[in-house]
Amino acid sequence: MKFTLFLFTLLACSWTANAGVFTSTEERADALNAQLKGNNSYHAYLARELATIAVVEKGQYDSRVAKAFIQRAEEEAAQAGGAK
Amino acid sequence: MKQRNTINRNKAHHIVLACAALSLSACAGTMPDTSVSELANARTAIAAAKAAGAEQCAPKLQAEAVSSLYWAAHELTEKDYHPDENAELIATAEDKAKQARQKAMKGCHEVIALKGVNFDNDSAEITAASAAILDHAVKTLQRPSHIMIEVAAHTDSNASDAYNLALSNRRAASVRRYLITHGIAANRMTAVGHGESQPIASNDTAAGRAQNRRVELRVLN
Fold first, then answer.
1. B31 contacts in chain A (CB < 8 Å)
2. Predicted-complex ipTM score
């Protein structure tokens, strides 16, 4: 039982780490902006705008909304195809 | 007894797994609902801009419109409702989308401005000064030999619309002919006169009118 719980904890931690739960919204926004440097496509602009909103919402202690916006920003960034 | 312990242990595992899954999904968060009635006008404006090609031709404006829409949608769900801020965000979304649509409607082809290629009043003849600039354009066009070009000519507002349209067609044809005789393939170019419909300066002054009598090369691909 203990061993199973230990394994589960490890698995849960790896999931959350992969999901970027341990990375702050600001860090994710910075990474996104660096990734999209020079990219002037619609998806890149939208990603940057959404990341900015995420950071503002985080500043207003609305973590749930900040997470939703930064996640969507990262999806848009992926569609933008990174730096150009 | 042993069997009951096993069953209990399995139940405990399932509960732990279910709780973990629920907590992880709660962390993810969801984007706000933009389908509410307060955002109807903004949604319509954004859809119209998208249909006009704003994502390609005015990406920044369109992105600002869409992000404002999402933000407004979120703010509308807040308990401490701020009507002024929400109205501002909704207005921003609508305004940016309208700007994006207008920009997209004008077309988003890359323009090679032939600065200095102007025409004398009521003339489609290429001047010596213009020829020198066109020679430079020929060299530019010879390098990327796959690009297709629209030779777009314009006039000032003197004379009637119909006359100016015909004059701009002659100017576009004149420049296209010049480029062909200097080695650019005819099938890479179309000539289009826009008359006085797209001024870049005021037609109230002589200097402004001279700027409006111009030719541009629009990259079509």
1. 68-69, 72
2. 0.77
